[in-house]
Amino acid sequence: MNAPLVPFGKPRPERADAARNRQILLEAARAMLAEHGAEKVTMDALAERAGVGKGTVFRRFGSRAGIFNALLDDSEGRFQEQVLSGPPPLGPGAAPKQRLIAYGRARIAYLFVHHALVRAALDRNRPAPMGEVSMTLPHFRMLLGRTDVPRRHLDGLALQLTSALEGPLMLYLSREEIARTPEPDAEDPLADSWQELVERVLPG
Amino acid sequence: MNAPLVPFGKPRPERADAARNRQILLEAARAMLAEHGAEKVTMDALAERAGVGKGTVFRRFGSRAGIFNALLDDSEGRFQEQVLSGPPPLGPGAAPKQRLIAYGRARIAYLFVHHALVRAALDRNRPAPMGEVSMTLPHFRMLLGRTDVPRRHLDGLALQLTSALEGPLMLYLSREEIARTPEPDAEDPLADSWQELVERVLPG
Fold first, then answer.
1. Phi and psi for B158 in degrees, rounded to 5?
2. Could you count the other beta carbons within 10 Å of the beta carbon of residue B66?
3. Domain, as residue range, for A48
4. Which of B37, B44, B106, B201 has a 20 to 30 Å separation from A185 between CA atoms?
5. Residues B110 and B138 grouped into a single domain
6. Interchain pair A128, B197: CB under 8 A
7. Is A123 found in the same domain as A169?
8. Is B180 or B197 the better-scoring residue by pLDDT?
9. Contact assignment for B150 to A197 by CB distance below 8 Å
10. Contact with chain B for residue A122, Cβ under 8 A
11. How many CA atoms lie within 13 Å of B38's alpha carbon, on the beta-carbon side?
């Protein structure tokens, strides 16, 4: 019996060697980004670093922007897992206010680590890819919907709180300011003022 | 008596014809931006549109990015005038909370009108030029300093509120979403949720 010409159902899982190849390429790209900055991550340089042919890099990512998007997808996926099924208050099970605070603290730490990547993926002609890849906006919309915020302000406030959280690291702080900031931890001043902001927006 | 080799004091005012030339170029660039979008604003196209030589455009702006920065400087200057010396509550004389609300409403209207320009000036490798050109961050820092916000959170909250205000139009909303929004006015939902946000952050 022949296989159907147009197979339905789930897409075929990635072959084991293709998946391994993908991980090797992503790790190489991540290392280059950390060591030399986004400008040095090119298709050619990545092929050389990972020890594969240029054709492999091209088939996998399509373009330089495709490298950054794949890296972002990969990192965002790990982050989302913690929010969707990790322990509370970042994961499910805590009150909306506590989840907003915990999400903000975790997200600030994430953006400190990934700021070069996040900025490299910014496209001045389209809204931030973060808006598509990141779960921040829908997550905030869901959490605010379980508070006393009036329905007519839910969309606006979710968007403005998303911006309040991600904007400083995506737009306003310079590389030098980010580098001067100590490793993000409980003492991080941005995380502390995020908590202050949420406590003021959702008192009681 | 000879003029000093290194003249002190105010820079010499722009010659009348140079100033006129500058205005003609800025108006032409603004019209091109509105009609065709940022991609079509190039050094050559601007020279042709304004009916001047390429050398004039080059001496004036230096580069394509220089055109956008000059346009932004010009628009921001007009906006700042209203905040610094216009009538309250946008101008001086009202309570900090009322000035924050009024500034946000005016700024959202400004960003709706200038969003193509603001995004064209975004540089993925540096913080937003808005952070240098715009007065939002220092203005918010000053206004919050006159409220009950604890001193240790002033810098963080000023940065996060700046992002909450400018981020949606600079980062998250697509061109299509901005185009769908009716002319900004008292009914603008983003401006209304900005007011809700400020009233929650500064109750009483």
1. -60, -40
2. 14
3. 16-62
4. B201
5. yes
6. no
7. yes
8. B197
9. no
10. yes
11. 21
Contact residues, chain A, for B127 at CB < 8 Å = 171-174
A71 lies in the same domain as A57: no
Is there a single domain that holds both residue B83 and residue B176?
Answer: yes
Name the percent of chain A lying above pLDDT 70. Answer: 82
For residue B119, the Cα-to-chain-centroid distance in whole angstroms is 11
What's the pLDDT at A140? 96
Query: Same domain for A117 and A174?
Result: yes
Nearest 5°: the CA angle B150, B153, B157 is: 120
The CA–CA distances, whole Å, from A17 to A13, A138, B132 equal 11, 35, 49
Residue A140 sits in the same domain as residue A74: yes
Tell whether B73 and B131 lie within a shared domain.
yes
Please judge whether A194 and B166 are an interchain contact, meaning their C-beta atoms are less than 8 angstroms apart.
Answer: no
pLDDT tens-digit series, residues B49-65: 999 999 999 999 888 88
A138 CB within 8 Å of a chain B CB: no
**The total number of structural domains that make up chain B:** 2
Interchain pair A170, B172: CB under 8 A: no
Q: Does A168 touch chain B (CB under 8 A)?
A: yes
Q: Chain A: residue nearest B137 by CA?
A: A172
Q: Do B79 and B41 share a domain, yes or no?
A: no
Its ipTM equals: 0.80
* Each residue's pLDDT tens digit, B139-158: 999 999 999 999 999 999 99
| Between B68 and B199, residue with greater pLDDT | B199
Q: How far is A4 from chain B (nearest CA, A)?
A: 40
